[in-house]
Amino acid sequence: MKLLEYEAKEILKEAGIPVPKGILIRAGDDACAGAAQVGDLVVVKAQVDVGGRGKAGGILMADSSTVQDTADRLLSSCIKDVPVHAVLIEERIAIEHEYYLSISIDRSSGSPLILFTASGGVEIEEVARTNPEAIRRSTVHPLLSDVPGYTIRYLLNGAPKELGPVINRLYQVFRSRDALLAEINPLVTTPAGVYAADAKIIVDDNALARQGISENRDLTDRERKAEEHGFSFVELDGSIGVIGNGAGLTMATVDLITVLGGRPANFLDVGGGADRVRVAHAVRLLGSMPGVSVIIVNLLGGITRCDEVAAGIIEAGVSQQVIVRLAGTNEEEGRSMLNKHGYRMLDTMEEAVAAAVEVAR
Predict the structure, then answer these.
(1) Choosing a second label site near 21 at 20 to 30 A (CA), which of 159, 184, 186, 192?
(2) Residues carrying an active site annotation
(3) Which domains does the chain possess?
(4) Beta-bridge partners for 88
């Protein structure tokens, strides 16, 4: 579960990582009193569980004379279809430089993986695509309670040494909170010192009870529908809808779209044994997403029958072009059905993804 920003910052503050002064409010009438505790120049941030909230209008600048109107505006809005129930009013800090710092799990080694770059303030995927050599990465043996000094020096590579303690403290947070991801973006330097200007922590769902954390997500209508149908669904910000069966195949499809220069709109795993009804629900769900211009269905038929998948795609009848790659049980029957109704079915995942990226362009 992804914690909201204010929750993540409370955890960082407890760990000794400086965060800007801020106060959480749930009603616009409390904004002026809240700002009085923070400062004259503030940032008003919607507390919603979505990515890219800044670009979606969820982070606004204000001062003491406009903070109530700004808070009211956000509290009466939705950010990417998620209603805003609370906003964080935070002091506006004088940023000198922005860095990126995260700790996640390196699946190949089973160890914590630290990423650090001086190109903070933007999505790490964009940095990896445009300037991969700018990212320093290092794994830490999972039995170590601290990040070794030589690892911190390697990661900083000339960045201010004041950032070193933050790396170690974030590692402590990652270990103690059973996190899947602990991220500070941006980690900033200011004339007053180092601050975590934004923070993201994702806690392993299996550890929520042990951590004393309750489920806090405000689901969008699409997330709610996906949950009802038992889909594994994550909404992203691209234009290519993705349906697969199995987390590995679905993630590989998402990754290949990115490698070929496209932008995935989601991750949707229909699971094994999906019948026509389940597939139709999945296709309609992606067809309802604004900005989705093409949908790729990439399924392997085992207990899942390709003719059932084809029937579900046809039954969904969405307006977007649907590009299909099916392989396995009843593949020829599925191909015949799709061809009859004018759908594109390609032989390999690479061909299907390339075709979807071309359509999206």
Answers:
(1) 159
(2) 100, 183
(3) 21-91 (3.30.1490.20), 97-211 (3.30.470.20), 221-360 (3.40.50.261)
(4) 24, 45
